């Protein structure tokens, strides 16, 4: 039976007024008070099963857990996890959301691959469940509690208009609502993005080396076990009076698997933060695009005011005042949108620099330290056993 993973509830980013507010959130995004956990959340992804009912086989991952609202249990496909992550990234632009493992077309039903994917999907759920405004959302609750057809629930959900998104961000991230970005904060963000990108590149290279080392070690461990057994048999031919006695080698846990698992989860974790930072720069690009719309519409308005109209406007034969009024409305709409994008960009930048990134770094050193110590301890144990075997063989000849 799969172990249940405890997820400590994190409240540092939670505004205590969020779930009690009268503000009207869009459907499926509003944090629901009934899903606000009163204690720790338990959530896990179990061993997948293969569904053979359809023409194309696919894996089902059982999700189980409980919180203060009760127990939950449901099966989800990989594409359901992908849909959840896509919707969350649309609704929470510029916010950290861990990545999920990439899609794979060939060999995606092999046992080793399914086990690897299960670990990474569980990592995604555990990390996401620690984000209060996401865990309490209807979308996340529908994912872990039902209905079965999750894709149907989220298929129609797109990115919110900036004019609506800004109010949500001001309330959820109230600590960053008054943050105003400047050249220094922008430069700091770019430096962090560059540092993370370099780290990701190194981690991806390390993943490849770890994968080969895991495979090589497994082969080495089995072969060296057989080698000592064969040596005993061969010895009878050459030394009748000496018997080689050494302890039978046990197949220990591959010490390189721990590093490989850590590398893979770190890649997903860092990718989620890189995505959030990139969203901040995408918001700045959206500002420029909206500002261009305003300039273009103002030029259009100026032409209307001096009596110039395009072919369509001439055919429609509406009075000049009608088009001038419409142009003024469009300018006002774009200006409001620009103000909202600027506000969201500042909130995102403040939240990333002052909360998300510092919090992201917390505990990383401790996890890394534990991983390295676990690896070195297992490696030392492995080598000590090999030394002991060789000494036992050597003693037979003394």
CATH topology of the largest domain: Helix Hairpins
Number of strands: 5
Average pLDDT, to the nearest integer?
A: 83
Query: Which stretches are low in confidence, meaning pLDDT under 50 for 5 or more residues running?
Result: 1-26
Assembly state of the chains shown: single chain
Largest sheet: 5 strands, antiparallel
> Which class of secondary structure composition applies to the elements?
alpha+beta
Q: Termini separation (Å)?
A: 50 Å
Number of helices in the DSSP assignment = 11
Helix content: 55-70%
Structure in a nutshell:
The protein has helices spanning 78-91, 111-129, 132-135, 138-145, 150-154, 162-172, 183-238, 255-305, 311-316, 320-361, 364-395, and strands spanning 5-7, 41-45, 49-51, 58-67, 70-76. By secondary structure, it is of the alpha+beta class.
Descriptive tags:
398 residues; phosphatidylinositol binding; alpha+beta; PX Domain; disordered N terminus; Helix Hairpins; single chain; five-stranded antiparallel β-sheet
């Amino acid at each position: 039976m799969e172990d249940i993973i405890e997820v400590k509830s994190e409240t540092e980013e939670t505004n205590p007024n969020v779930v009690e507010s009268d503000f009207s959130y869009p459907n499926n995004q509003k944090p629901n008070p009934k899903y606000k956990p009163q204690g720790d959340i338990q959530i896990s992804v179990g061993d997948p099963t293969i569904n053979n009912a359809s023409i194309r086989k696919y894996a089902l991952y059982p999700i189980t857990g409980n919180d203060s609202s009760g127990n939950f249990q449901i099966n989800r496909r990989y594409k359901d996890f992908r849909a959840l992550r896509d919707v969350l990234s649309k609704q929470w632009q510029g916010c950290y959301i861990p990545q999920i493992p990439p899609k794979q077309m060939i060999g995606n039903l092999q046992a080793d691959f399914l086990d690897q994917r299960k670990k990474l999907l569980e990592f995604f759920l555990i990390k996401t469940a620690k984000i209060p405004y996401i865990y309490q959302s209807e979308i996340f609750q529908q994912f872990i509690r039902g209905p079965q057809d999750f894709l149907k629930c989220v298929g129609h959900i797109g990115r919110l208009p900036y004019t609506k998104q800004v109010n949500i961000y001001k309330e959820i991230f109230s600590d960053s609502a008054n943050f105003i970005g400047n050249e220094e904060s922008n430069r700091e963000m770019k430096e962090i993005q560059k540092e993370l990108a370099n780290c990701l590149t190194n981690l991806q290279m390390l993943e490849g080396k770890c994968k080969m080392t895991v495979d090589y070690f497994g082969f080495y461990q089995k072969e060296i076990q057989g080698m000592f057994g064969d040596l005993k048999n061969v010895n009878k031919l050459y030394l009748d009076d000496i018997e080689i006695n050494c302890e039978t080698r046990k197949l220990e846990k591959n010490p390189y698997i721990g590093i490989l698992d850590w590398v893979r989860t770190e890649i997903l974790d860092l990718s989620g933060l890189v995505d959030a930072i990139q969203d901040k720069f995408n918001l700045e690009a959206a500002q420029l695009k909206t500002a261009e719309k305003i300039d273009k519409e103002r030029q259009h308005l100026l032409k209307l005011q001096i009596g110039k109209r395009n072919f369509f406007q001439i055919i429609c034969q509406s009075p000049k005042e009608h088009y001038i009024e419409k142009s003024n409305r469009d300018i006002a709409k774009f200006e409001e949108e620009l103000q909202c994008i600027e506000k969201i960009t500042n909130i995102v930048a403040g939240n990333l620099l002052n909360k998300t990134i510092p919090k992201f770094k917390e505990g990383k050193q401790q996890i890394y330290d534990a991983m390295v110590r676990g690896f070195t301890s297992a490696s030392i144990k492995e080598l000590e056993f090999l030394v002991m075997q060789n000494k036992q063989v050597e003693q037979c000849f003394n």
